[in-house]
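Continued from yesterday's entry.
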Amino acid sequence: MEPLVPSPGAGKEALATLRILVVGGEGGSAGGLVQNLRQWADDGRLEIDTAPDLPRAVRQLAGQRWDVVLAVLGDRPDDDLPWWVDTLRGANGSPRLIAVAQAPSMGLVLRAEKLGLLDVLSLPLRRDELVRALERLRSVVSETAVPLPLVEPHAVGPYALVGQSPAMLDVYKLLARVAGSSATVLVQGESGTGKEVVARAIHINGPHASGAFVAVNCAAIPENLLESELFGHEKGAFTGAVTRKIGRFEQAGRGTLFLDEIADMSLALQAKILRAVQEREIERVGGGETIPVDVRLIAATNRDLKEAIKQARFREDLYYRLAVVTIRLPTLGERGDDLVLLTAYFVRHFAERYGKRIRAISDRALDLLRAHAWVGNVRELRNVIERAVIVATDETLRAEHLPDELRGEETTLADRPQGGLLTLAEAEARHIARVLAHTNGQIGAAAEILGIHRNTLTRKMKEYGL
């Protein structure tokens, strides 16, 4: 059953005043509903009319144009919804439906969402809930649908490289030159810029493609376990080592070992990584046997390693061993219209995953995406689009489908400096502060919304004094 959508010809002027037909809003459990609506109409730009029963409602729908039908559902609301959807589909102007029920069930809300209702409200009706629903309608019909461009991503196994900006073309060129060799590569870039995807692309297009690709996030593993994770250990090497463990260097075999966030490991462990790179051999923890390894090493970090070297937090000799070739990934803000291509790719990807038909994005939603700071870069955009696709109810992704954090930025223009523009650092700091306020200061939840590691968020909070 196709969802209800606003009239294609409707615009801002058409909904400056909303014409609402209230059906079944008098007597019984809905007593006082129409009276309240008429009181709210004066300051809410509403025109209210009523139909006490369904036959008269059908006649009024056939004879006049309505923007909204507010229908009080009966004792069997699940049966009422399909009837209303079918009736309004052929009505003059294709009005949107707001269903009102006594204590709506979760099942009713879920069904209403699938059918594309504007909202489901409960009795007694609250003014603020109705206002939110009607303002959402005003916003929706003022948006223009922009067709999503066709995107041909560069497949990297289950991942994809998407982008045509000059900054990404430079990355592609360097990637193509280095992939055919066995050189160690250092990939630098902020969290969420796609460092692992680039590492996988190098692996798939290189001489170690037939081997395994093994990824390790050095920041996500406690320091006291990281050495064993990388090099393995012998039985009895420490308390709890009840069996021999093969480490990630050996697991990679003749493939590629990807060490993400390498700057987060200790200097002592850096020394052991340096020896493994130089000598192409390792020793398991608690073992004396030297084990040769033939892996391609790709390291990644979101830190400035040269600055870390100055602060004696990273070994200079290891840096030069890793940075035989360095690939710097641009932030999402540096990639220009790649934002639109990435959005189109993610919309289609998640629409297919969740069984949705989404062919366009509204101009207002696109403006909100372009204006956002994107602290978490592509990963944050991916999270935002996945959430938007899940909540979308028709074939256009709209501003109302975006998270509150993005839509709230429309209301903060007055806080911006003269000229209306913030520096990237100011925009990033404000966005982080807004997300932290939304999560009541919970760093883990905020990092998930932003699409970055909690260590990165903690560092940025210190940097901005949050």
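--- second protein ---
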Amino acid sequence: MRDLTLTLILLFFTSFNHVHPEDGLKEKPNVLFIIIDDLRPQLACYGADGVISPNIDQLAGEGVMFTRSYCQVPVCGASRASLLTGLRPTRERFTSFKSVADDDAPGITGLPKHFKEHGYHTISNGKVYHHYEKDGAGGWSETPWHPNGWVEAPWYPKGNWANYLKEENLILRDEFTYGHAYESSDVLDNAYFDGAIAEKTIADLQRMGEKEKSFFLVAGFRKPHLPFNAPKKYWDMYERSEIDLADNPFQPENVPEASLTYLWELNNYVGIPKDPPIPDSLARTLIHGYYACVSYVDAQVGKILAELDRLSLRENTIVLLIGDHGWHLGEHGLWSKFTNFEESLRSPMIVSAPGLTAGQASTGLVEFVDLYPTLCELCGLPDPEHLDGTSLVPLLEDPNSRWEEAAFSRSRDGASVKTDRYRYTEWTDDDGEMYARMLYDHQVDPGENKNIAELPESTQIVEELSEMLKDD
């Protein structure tokens, strides 16, 4: 049955194919790839109460929403290096935000370059590779584009990397590198980076829609990454007093210290305590800012998708939307990524492709390394031999299909495996000796509030999951 379905899909796409008059290349389906920084499944379509995300929700209704999709590394640079090469992280590879794919995996053909080598016009807008000035060499048909003032990282002396608009934050930025952790300005969407990225992406769609060559167009939005800066109208969508705080702002029972990062990243900002806990009033303001940024980015996604429809490109364009990893909003007292907890590792994945399933959700355990082979199969491209992931086309055909038994992630010394029922993580030193571990039973403890790794009744499952980590 799957062979027949796949044949029909290929025939569908072939009906759009024709020979390029200049170079003889056959057209393939277009790809619009949207990457959203630090986006956890804080979306209405994922069941998040109170979050306003109508455009991403609509996209989910037009494709397959993966409810259990996991990044390989919960930090920007490493996550993007992994998913864009299709390689899993190791103890030495893709370890931090400083990770550069071309350095950690020399000679590996990244996803954009693979598409470029097979006739696609490839475009990078905004935050795609984390280190855009020195990564993904040869992968883009045009120089990667960023709004004025964009820089790679906060310690760079040039530019307003945090994209502050208010004078008070610009002054603090000059004095301390960081200003406040949030900002609301009564401005148009394009005053902040993500609005400008949406406008550039729309202009590219208009330009590429007139060309014969298929496009591989990536829009990398920076929000809801800190600082939580967004136009005032998106803050005004929410009543702060009605925003719920995390219901488990405490350390899990029996948790190892290795698992906790507390306020990493957040405590660099003005007005944030150096040590937990965060006062409730400040916590509610921070969550308000995160929600405002999600709604702001959602609006930019909506503009791009509306233009895709207006140009009649949707019928031959695959749309893929992901976050690069999750983020903690006070769960376990944490306000960051970098952890091996569910909030840090789980992030949205939505795929909408012509001729495939629409408006369904898949509970299959999927990983970001699966994206590279999935796009290759959908577009009729060969898989490079180095890929570690598995094409998700069977789940796009039938979201209820049986799928992989586990998803694997790493954060610093900790290797983690998620199965249907459990999440198990163990930390090892440079000699491979385990020095900490945790196990959560998601069937009875979905919030990961009680580490049961050391209980006698957990011995067998710990051994089994530890072996799975060794085999990964």
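The chain has two domains: 2-404, 413-472. The domain at 2-404 is CATH 3.40.720.10 (Alkaline Phosphatase, subunit A). Will compare against the first tomorrow.
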